[in-house]
């Protein structure tokens, strides 16, 4: 073997030896983010959330990741089952060693794993809405959807304008329904609203005409509030209109997926509900603080997945973007990232402009909501 060939082989070997620790370093710097989402099950929540996280992770890694660290996304499909959420949370934390968890999709699931996040000091950024998730504050738990109490207030403010004082409340028998029902009962007196009937329906129901007949028997009812995140909420709407009852129907912020409108059909026309501005992004004035963010996310999502953007995908968007900003500041030290989360200000997201504090792990206020309606089968700003 001549000297030139020897030098070439030695050089290649040296480069190879150098490459191994570089590759190991790159692998060591991978940030694992887990997600527990209801991609299947009785809701329209998890699919847009999972799609959004995959899209954002792909975009982020294409730009070099977070502080040059690649993000590895690990999604578990809970199907909306709290027991599965518990199992997946333990698996993600103990086996996968994730840095943080985004989700779950539903309030019931989140409440089941909240304690696990606290005990293991794992950042949990929920995509569910129940106020109990962050009130009282849990050190390691945050959430991106707006507050239930603010949604209730927006509904009652609109009712006051419409001179509505006596209502019926119907809620689904899950965590979101229970939490919303509690807030409605608590806040109604502050707005001079009297809840004459409060009923709970099964989240898997396919016919709620008997419940509607029970509500209609009370002739004093001026409006119905339907608080749910499952397809059964569309059944209530259909059954009310099929019965010829023309009472105003108010939905919660859990109505923000056009699939609920499509399921209810013509009966959904005129439904009123509070929501973030993502649903009407294109109609916002150009100087609106959220417009650029909303329009870009909407365009990117709809072009990639060939379906309408939804409030729920927006919750995942916000959780991912906010967590990313905190990691940019805190690096790969979980405590520093948690501390950074509590100090993030003026973060423009799909749900509103976030301002976190040690006492507020949601960061949104009443002005994160606008009142929406369904007009010609589409979402539109509501004007009374």
Assign the structural class, choosing from mainly alpha, mainly beta, alpha/beta, alpha+beta, or little secondary structure: alpha/beta
**How many DSSP helices?**
12
- List how many beta strands DSSP finds: 14
Average pLDDT: 93
Helix content range: 40-55%
- Residue stretches low in confidence (pLDDT < 50, at least 5 long) are 1-28
Secondary structure layout:
Layout: H1 3-28, E1 31-37, H2 46-62, E2 71-77, H3 82-95, E3 100-102, H4 107-120, E4 123-126, E5 141-143, H5 148-161, E6 166-172, H6 175-187, E7 194-201, H7 209-216, E8 223-227, H8 232-242, E9 249-251, H9 258-264, E10 272-275, H10 291-305, H11 311-330, H12 334-341, E11 347-348, E12 353-354, E13 370-375, E14 378-381
Parallel strand pairs: 1-2, 1-3, 3-4, 4-5, 6-7, 6-8, 8-9
Antiparallel strand pairs: 10-13, 11-12, 13-14
Helix pairs in contact: 2-11, 3-4, 5-6, 8-9, 11-12
Characteristic terms for this protein:
alpha/beta, 2 domains, Rossmann fold, five-stranded parallel sheet, 384 residues, 17% strand, globular, four-stranded parallel sheet
